[in-house]
Amino acid sequence: VNLPGKQIARFGIGIAAIVLIVFVFYLIHVNQATAGFAFLLVILVVSAAWGLRQAILLSLCATLAYNFFFLPPVGTFSISDPQNWIALLAFLVTAVIASQLSERARHQRITAEQRREELERLYSFSQQLLTTENILTLVNGIPNSVSETFGTSASAIFLPERKKVYYSDIKAQSVFSEEQLKEVAARGEPISISPGVTVVPVRVGVRSIGAFSVAGGSVSRETIDAVATLIAIAIGRANAVEGLAHSEASRESERLRSVLLDSVTHDFRTPLTSIKACAESLLADEGLGEASRIELLTIINEESDRLNRLVGEAAQMAELDSGAPELSLEPHYIREAIDSALAATKNVLAKHHVKIVADDSLPLVEMDVRRVSEVLAQLLDNAAKYSPAGTSITITSEVQNSNLITSVADQGPGIDGIDHGMIFDKFYRGQGQRSTVQGTGMGLAIAKALIEAHGGTINVTSQLGHGSVFLFSLPIQKRSA
Ligand code: ADP
After folding, report:
1. 467 Cα–ligand 1 center, Å
2. Is the dihedral of CA 131, 134, 139, 143 positive or negative?
């Protein structure tokens, strides 16, 4: 048996205590009973602190010392009075039984301590599992957080539905093979590969949904099972959350579709009715003067433009609903987008003064120039639509940090607090404008989606009664030479 240094040292201390008792009591001449009790006390303390093995060894030594120094004839290992044999035997038996009892108490204390620690770890592990709702991140993170929380040397998890084994680190791959994990997942029965290396099924009720394995660390079987159960619950929860988000998204999309249909049927009817009415007047009445004819044709022209824009918006809205818009990004100057937006909104801007503040030194920016021009056209259109004729509209573009900020400022009514947070929402129309100005509430929502697809942001600042400034940012990529 190899006795580690610590054991020998402890034994030495026990012996020293006995020698001390012998020495002191030998000097002051106490009776046998007192000496016996003193020895017993030392043995009890030793067994409570260091365990049974130490205590038994010490009991034997104490018995010899007791016999030699305190039972007559003193100074020999022989015993003259047969009564003293009984005393000696009683001493030995008491020492051993007491040691055993206190050893058991010690053992229970240690187990309770371990249980408490494992419970604490289980709790903290369950907390970690709760913070993740994304199933992929969750499964990826489990082996690592098991290793960290329980101090195991390796851990792995296999989920048939993901067809993949997730390991805590690279060396874990040599500890458990994929086949072993697959087998446990398929059969739903735990296996023990070698001492301290266990693979258990991850079960929901009686159905096995995967396998989980740990190696190293002093984790009890119960805890491993509890961990597997926690994992099963967390995976079930993440799946449920994902399913919910999915159905939420499809419900939202369903709602959007019906609102879109409503809006389309409603908003398309007005321009169509005017066009139809003008066309009928033109067809029916030959005695129409030149001026009236031109007026009717102008209405037809404008209303078809509007119709065209509406169709465009509705189509874009449907496109955005089915995912982020596809951009064809190329380096362009913002001036190109501004010019094409101005050309597109020439008619609506006719009654306003337009000012452009854009330096020639502005950098090239990665953008889908057609989409950015659409955004600008939308902002210009709104500015013209919501501000009185004769006021001016200013387009400004400048570099701020690593963004190109472009803004459209008008001298219209501004936007009040309630509307502020909502005008970029789909189909939201301002409180005051709903009845007075024609619109659909789609324009700014589309603009926002397009700018965000570029990695930028769009905002508005406004002063009631003085006008609004809509500004959007486009990130300027530093091109590596
Ligand atoms: P629409 O113009 O079709 O109503 P938008 O999405 O373009 O839809 O705009 C949403 C709302 O934002 C408008 O109803 C209006 O209340 C407000 N708004 C947009 N631009 C301006 C502006 N330049 N001045 C004041 N209010 C504006």
Report:
1. 12
2. negative
